[in-house]
Amino acid sequence: MLVPAGAHYHFGCLFDLKAENQAATDWSDLLKQIRAWITRKYPDNQPLRGRWFFSGGEWRLLGTPRVWVKTEVAQRAGPDGFPHYWALRYEHPCEDIASRQWRTDIGVTALSSVRYRFSLTTTHWLLPGYIGQEPEAPQPTAPGIVPALLGSPRWTAWAGSERLRTEPEAVNVGEGERLRSRLEDPLRQCALVVIARERDSDLLKINPTHLARLLAGNACVLAATSTEVDRELEYILPRGFRWSNGMVRVFQPGVRFDREADARRHRFFRREDIDSLTAEVVEGMIVRGVARRSRTWAVDGVGSIEDTLAKQREIRLQDLRQSASDASLEQRVKLQDDLIEAVDEENRSLSGQIDVLKKELEEVGADRAELESSISTLEYERDYHKGAALEAEQRARQLSDQRAILSHLRKLPETVPEIIEVIERIWADRIVFTERAKVSAQKASINKARSEISQVWECLWAMATDLHDILFQSESNKGNIPQEFRARTGFELTFTEGKQTKQDKKFMRLRQDLFRGREVDITAHVKYGNTPPRCLRVHFCPLHEEKIIVVGHCGDHLDTYGTQRLP
């Protein structure tokens, strides 16, 4: 099939039509039904109803050169009286985008007097010279003739062993073995799209009726009638081939249950994928994948005007070869020239078909790249949302714990150990106190000055909140943490000791502690007051990997070189 440069493959299908009543249905009846589909748009145009439609010819709508219909036939010698091959090309402008042109190619091949192979391909392109923003690609949809044939009482449509319909089929409990047989049937020539129900709501994530109409002529849509179907299939299908809990899965022809790797060939969308992308987007991905990659070529059949012309040449070549044996020398030379001309024409036609196939292959590659990109995006978003959900769950649990703590806090803590207990429970993910810190808190002289206890609360609260944020979250204040902490809280902070204190190993050992089996340096400390009982020193170690403050001393001033010399 020759297509203009820049044309886009829109929809295609291939199936066999079997006449339900041989006496009332024949070759011409099928062509009349195709013609009726076109004439509905041009009801007052009598030439369109001429005999040429059946025997080959062309029609153009008067005053509208972009609307035209062409047919071709090819007939082998025989007593049956009807053409074995017939093709139609119908072109018209787009109703929505004036610069877009549509083309529908239909091929009909007579397999017998009651069985015909029907092929349809739809393409579209923008007119030469168009300049402007590229219009959005339309959603693949079956032309009206496809559902008309599938729903006609005169015909039944088949894709190999599968009966094609325009409505979805129900999958009931007890039909699991039959469904497995359909999936692995080697004669099946179309996709089976199966939709499971959500276990919590018993609803379908995709509308099966709408999807079945979009996939008319290309696939069978099956919808589970209950969640019990999931459980039945768990016993019937191998793990990698199952679908359940709102999932939608597309089973390609030729399922191999004996090959675990074959499961990857049958694309599926989980309920969370559908929720993330929306049902409309997933539906579009399925339709594009099935309708744009359908099998539209017929072995020993026709799918277009070019195919039918090729059949004409093939029949002519056979006739020429049969005539050559009985011809004179002069006639043989003439026949030989005719043969060469016919072969050249066939080669040109095949070259055109190769170009078309290359273009379709490029489009398939582009669609595959788009699909792989969508899958990568989905996986990233899934991991991101999973992490965000986990973080939110942890935060909610923490807030719930904090609320529970505060609800039991009937009176304010009155000693340093009591304050530590509350702070540590509220901010368990930010600040912890070693056993040594708790012992120092019990001995702290500030416990005797009730008027100063509120300062202890404010100091430890500031460390769990402001200091934690400055140390582990703020990027702009890394250069002067003590200054930032004092500006926010009013408390002094230092990360070191005096020179002589640091040179004395005895004093520096006081500034070491154990936390979870490892030694930590608690030289850094927050200060409040200087003279007991109005005095507090909170020595700590910031663990950056865990993002936690470890307090190793919370009480009076630790010994220094200066305090050692005091009388």
List the helices and strands and how they pair.
Layout: E1 8-19, H1 27-39, H2 52-55, E2 57-60, E3 68-74, E4 85-93, E5 100-110, E6 115-126, H3 145-150, E7 155-159, E8 162-164, E9 169-171, H4 176-184, E10 191-195, H5 208-214, E11 219-224, H6 228-236, E12 248-251, E13 268-269, H7 271-277, H8 279-291, H9 305-324, H10 329-407, H11 416-426, E14 431-433, H12 435-443, H13 453-472, H14 481-489, E15 492-494, H15 499-503, H16 505-509, E16 512-515, E17 518-521, E18 525-531, E19 534-543, E20 548-555, H17 561-565
Parallel strand pairs: 9-11, 10-11, 14-20
Antiparallel strand pairs: 1-6, 1-7, 2-3, 3-4, 4-5, 5-6, 7-8, 10-12, 12-13, 15-18, 16-17, 18-19, 19-20
Per DSSP, what share of the residues sits in E-state strands of 2 or more residues?
A: 15-25%
Rg (CA only): 40 Å
Spatially, the strands of the biggest sheet line up as: 2-3-4-5-6-1-7-8
- Structure annotation, total helices: 17
Major β-sheet profile: 8 strands, antiparallel
Distance between the termini: 108 Å
Structural class comes to: alpha+beta
- What's the number of extended β-strand segments? 20
Integer average pLDDT: 84
Q: What level of helicity do the residues show?
A: 40-55%
Shape type: elongated
